[in-house]
C-alpha cells in the first residue's frame, strides 16, 4: 500500500491528491486497474477516518447521535447529483429538488432560509441564531462536496 493520503490534514488536500493520483493511476490514462482501486479504497478510508475524528473531537453535540449516523447519511447521499456542505454537525443538501423524497425519508427537512435540505441527526427545532451562515461556517468549519456532475468534469 502506498499511503497516498498520509500527509493530508483536510478533505480538500485529500481531494487534490486523489485527483492527481487518479490521472496517473486510472486505467483510461494508461494506469493499472488494481493500483487505482487500491488508491480509491485508501481515499474512502481516509474520508471515513477523517469524518470520524472530526465528530469525535467535537464531542457528541448531536443529541446522542454518533458519527455512524452521519456516515450512513453521507454514504446514502454521496451519489446524488447535488451539492453537499457539511457545517459542524449539520449536512446541507443544495440543488437537490429531484431528491426531496429520498432526503425526507433519511430525516432531512427543508430550510427556506438556506434554500437547502438539512440534516442534523435530531428533530427539526426552531432556532433563532444571530449568526450568518458565513459566521457559522467559520466557527464550526465547512467541507463542501461538489455535485456528481461537477465531480465528473474534474475527474
Quick synopsis:
By secondary structure, the protein is α+β, with helices and mostly antiparallel strands. The chain is built from six helices and five strands.
Which short descriptors sum up this protein?
about 160 residues; alpha+beta; 2 domains; five-stranded antiparallel β-sheet
Q: What is the radius of gyration? A: 17 Å
Query: Can you tell me the number of structural domains?
Result: 2
- Taken from the alpha-carbon principal axes, the silhouette is elongated
Which stretches of 5+ consecutive residues score pLDDT under 50?
A: none
* Structure classification: alpha+beta
SSE series: HHHEEHEEHEH
What is the element layout, followed by pairings?
Layout lengths: L10 H15 L7 H26 L8 H11 L5 E5 L2 E5 L5 H6 L3 E3 L4 E4 L13 H8 L1 E4 L2 H7 L1
Antiparallel strand pairs: 1-2, 1-5, 2-4, 3-4
Helix pairs in contact: 1-2
